[in-house]
């Protein structure tokens, strides 16, 4: 309810200036410093009155009786929702760095994500979290069947965003005769590979079960059930939670922030990011929740975070898309004392870059 509080222009300006000053200094903010540094053109007494109102409204608080004020989570929320715009200059810088330092034509997509995460963490000074694309939406680039023994074959699948995957299949018993003729078997497996590429190349893993096996020539129908089970297994495998498929960069940088000076805070954040990423996954990549809002960027501030170690943190995240379909996300994790306009611009620019990269034709 506090977030919906209506502030007049002066109160908004004082809240904006208080947040900016605290983000810059990490020190409680007094009225005199606001008058001096932000040219508010009013007396310190007037600023104190405005700060007193903001404190009573729960948007500022005093850590000590004699100290100045610092923003509360609710104060940051109004700052983010009503008082700022993304920093376009930072967004353009991110875009330039990504395009000049990364190569989406020559690198694997996973290498792109890793490089992007390093650039964002260095630039922002916060932890960068980038999820690998949702495997269920990975696009098939090539499929190949090879023989590994007289009775077994290997289905090798190349995806656009991941390394090769393979599934061992049992060759039909009816091939006993062909098994004594390696050249014939090799020819049949190549014909089957051509069939799979013709019908599946360019489709997502989510679509492989749509293949009409009746189109397979009659002489190869004995393979149909085995191959159907193999591609179905591949599709099911891709639907497993990918909570560990997340690039993390910049942990050392963010732990230098004064908010993480206590060892127990450091340990909790490190454990969360290194061992319990599955807890973060619903926050940074939950497509249904994302589609229910009109906002391109989602932001969790302090106590809004459901995960205990993150209650002193802010998470700013944006989806990247293959065409119009969300497949992954880019997030910035830092203290609530964050330059939100910069973080928003950073994740938006990175999401745009990755969307363009993953949507490139094969």
TrEMBL record:
Organism domain of life = Bacteria
Question: What UniProt keywords are attached to this protein's entry?
Answer: Repressor, Stress response, Transcription, Transcription regulation
Tell me, what's a Pfam family for it?
HrcA
Q: Which InterPro entries match?
A: GAF-like_dom_sf, HrcA, HrcA_C, WH-like_DNA-bd_sf, WH_DNA-bd_sf, WHTH_transcript_rep_HrcA_IDD
Tell me the ranges covered by the Heat-inducible transcription repressor HrcA C-terminal domain, including all copies.
110-344
The UniProt entry, under HAMAP family, shows: HrcA
* Described function: Negative regulator of class I heat shock genes (grpE-dnaK-dnaJ and groELS operons). Prevents heat-shock induction of these operons.
Which family does the record claim for this protein? Belongs to the HrcA family.
Identify this protein by name. Answer: Heat-inducible transcription repressor HrcA
Q: Which organism is it from?
A: Almyronema epifaneia S1
